[in-house]
Each structure stands twice: as structure tokens, then as C-alpha cells.
Amino acid sequence: MKKIGILGGTFNPPHLGHLVIANEVQMELKLDEIWFMPNQEPPHKENKSGVGGAHRLEMVRRAIANHPLFKTQAIELERVGKSYTFDTIQLLKERYDDEFYFIIGADMIEYLPKWYNIDELVNLITFVGVNRSQYRCDTDYPILYVDVPNIDISSDMIRKRVQDGKSIRYLVPDPVKEYIEENRLYET
């Protein structure tokens, strides 16, 4: 049985902050793999950029290509509608006999009481919380905490920089930057 970390998100686009979080959690908890799992439609936000799942999955693949323990997991993109973590974890548990560690930022820790079927979900996975500036990691739910360097980069900020014609070099991996430019993503 493997110990698998899952880092879910829109990855719209994936950036260096995502990679640092995954790397720090993998090392700290000695996980066998980290799966980057782009979601279809998160229940707590809308995809206003118009960049679909295929583009986001390809950007993740390019972002993690050089790390042997980082993988992609497209299970949420296979479904239509809102992506609830509870439903996804049930599907993963049916398909794999592994132990799952679900990585969330402090912004999502604060939101945990509103998660769909949270009281059942905490019995299916281990939550791993990482710090994020301007958010607290306080919760009554069982969470392992991993301290990661605060890298104040967001996908929103990257999309805005592209729209404004500003550089995103050193904010995203070069293959992601090239993919965004080649496909003219986020320009309007």
C-alpha cells in the first residue's frame, strides 16, 4: 500500500507555489507519490477564465514532468458538474488500495465546516494542512500540519499579469509559461 498525497485545485494555471507545497509535504511525510488533481468545477468558485480541463491538465503535466514522484490524476475531469472531494475520494478508494493524504491550504482549512460530507470524509483520508499567508490553520477537524515556505503567488495574479501583458517568468515553470503563450491563454 502506497502513501499518496493528493493536491487538488483548479491549477488555472499551476504555479511554483503549488510545486513547493507538493515537494515540502512529500518530503516531510515521506509520501510515495503526490498526485496533482485538477478539478472540473469546484463547489466554492467559478472558472471565469474559460480555460478548460484539457488545458489545465496539460499545464500540470508540463509543470511536474521533471519530478519522478509527482503524477497527474484526472479523475475529477472525467465527471461533469461540481467536484466534491467526498465523491472523488470514494471513487479513488474503489480503484486503489492506497492510503490518501489530502493537501489543503489554510484558506480551505477555514472552509472545512462547509465541505460536503466532511464528517464522513475525515474518516476516509488524512487531511494535510499547509500555511498560507493571511489565513489561520485553526480547526476542530483532525489535520496533520506541514510548514511550507510562504510563496505569495496565486493563479488569479498570474492570469491578471498575462491579461496586462506583464511577465510571468519565475512564477510558473518555463514549460507552463510556454504553453500559456503558445495557446494564448488568459489574454482576454
Question: What does this entry look like structurally?
Answer:
This protein is of the alpha/beta class. The protein has one domain (3-152): HUPs (Rossmann fold, 3-Layer(aba) Sandwich). The chain has helices at 16-29, 53-64, 85-95, 106-111, 118-121, 155-163, 174-183, and strands spanning 3-9, 33-38, 70-72, 99-105, 126-130, 143-146. The chain has a 6-stranded parallel beta sheet with strand order 3-2-1-4-5-6. Helix 2 (53-64) runs antiparallel to helix 7. The chain is globular and about 45 Å long. The model has no long low-confidence stretch (mean pLDDT 92).
Secondary structure topology:
Elements: E1 3-9, H1 16-29, E2 33-38, H2 53-64, E3 70-72, H3 85-95, E4 99-105, H4 106-111, H5 118-121, E5 126-130, E6 143-146, H6 155-163, H7 174-183
Parallel strand pairs: 1-2, 1-4, 2-3, 4-5, 5-6
Helix pairs in contact: 2-7
Brief sketch in words of this structure:
The chain is 35% helix and 17% strand.
| CATH class designation | Alpha Beta
Share of helical residues: 25-40%
H/E series, N to C?
Answer: EHEHEHEHHEEHH
Q: Quick one: how many beta strands?
A: 6
CATH architectural group: 3-Layer(aba) Sandwich
Strand content: 15-25%
Compute the average pLDDT.
Answer: 92
> In order across it, which strands form the biggest sheet?
3-2-1-4-5-6
